Amino acid sequence: MKNIFKFVYLLVALFAISSCEDGTENSMYEGEPTSFFLDKFAVAKGPGVGYKDFDIKIGTMSPLSSPAEFSITRISGDAVLGTDYEILNGGKVQIAAGSNLGIIKLRVYGANLSQTVAKTLVFDLISPSVRKADYNTTISLSLIFGCDSALEGTYQYSTVNAFAPGLPDVPGPLTGTVVFSKVGDGLYQISDSSFGAFAQFSGYQPTSTGVRIEDLCGKLTFKTANQYGDTFAISNIAVAGNKLTFKWTTSYGEYGTTTLTKSNGNWPALY
After folding, report:
1. Which of 22, 61, 139, 161 has the most CB atoms less than 10 A away?
2. 222 and 253 assigned to the same domain
3. Is-contact 189 241, C-beta < 8 A?
4. Domain boundary among 126, 145, 164
5. In contact, 59 and 137? CB cutoff 8 Å
6. Residue 172 in domain
7. What is the pTM of this model?
8. Residues 6+ apart with CB under 8 A from 184
9. Which of these, 46, 162, 50, lies nearest to 108 by C-alpha position?
10. Which whole number is the average pLDDT over 148-169?
11. 175 with 197, same domain?
12. CA-wise closest residue to 216 among 140, 143, 268
């Protein structure tokens, strides 16, 4: 029975720092159109097979009155040119008159990159005609092996064979909807990680909250504890078209088997 929480959690307010992502807000500035990197730090991923292109964005504090050339030059880092990355178009871009955004593409190869230890690249910004700003004059990139994840969404669940220690079994099926909300790269908050089971267990809160699921290149792992301080594990994962089935088990001893159904296509390969 879980009438009393095993842990009391403090709520921490998260403050978002707004930043201009596309340079358009800078168009209100009427001074000299100094140049800068829109990102001072960034992560660039490369897949196991092939490559993925990363946009290095260059902005100016106001739209240019005439076209200007910009380029990047490497100043440090341990990533290997030709093996880990390539710089397309010679690392150059022209920003047109009336615009204040340019993009140089970095091609990243993941075959020799690690998921956990990044290789680094630091680039300087050069222009023969536009002075650099006093900030973001370099960009520091971390190159890692990684894959895109797109599990955010609302899914129909069906849970069977739900169990909690000391309580009657719940054969199910228990049905409803669950929401995966993206909170990070490949990381999603789950609105109810019991997928309907806790609502059937006497003395429990109706949902299991606080648990996240990570998609690391198709490998699924539950992260963080729920409101009771219990962690979750996932096993017996199977994908069949738009249905994803798995067994979840908690450190307290609850478990169940859940199938999630997508309404807008099939699940990717997951394990």
Report:
1. 139
2. yes
3. no
4. 145
5. no
6. yes
7. 0.58
8. none
9. 46
10. 95
11. yes
12. 268
Tokens of 139: 């960009």
How many domains are contained in the chain?
Answer: 2
3-state secondary structure of 22: coil
Please report, for residues 51, 79, 109, 119, the alpha-carbon distance to residue 82 in angstroms, rounded to integers and kept in the order given: 12, 9, 9, 14
Whether the predicted pLDDT of 28 surpasses 80: no
Q: How confident is the model at residue 232 (pLDDT cuts 50, 70, 90)?
A: very high
pLDDT tens for 3-16 read 444 333 322 222 23
Strands 212-216 and 187-190: antiparallel
The CATH number of residue 226's host domain is 2.40.128.120
- The answer to whether 63 and 99 are in contact (CB under 8 A) is yes
Angle at 187 between CA 47 and CA 153, to 5 degrees: 100
Q: Is residue 10 part of a domain?
A: no
What DSSP line would sit under 50-77, residue for residue?
SEEEEEEEEEESS--SS-EEEEEEEEE-
Kindly state whether residue 6 falls inside one of the protein's structural domains: no
- Residue 7 forms part of a structural domain: no
Q: What amino acid occupies position 99? A: S
Query: Is residue 136 domain-shared with residue 167, that is, in the same domain?
Result: no
- If you search the block for the tokens 């899914």, which residue do you land on? 155
Q: Token digits for 69?
A: 């050339």
What are the Cα distances from residue 39, in Å, to 11, 58, 72?
30, 9, 14
Same domain, 164 and 126: no
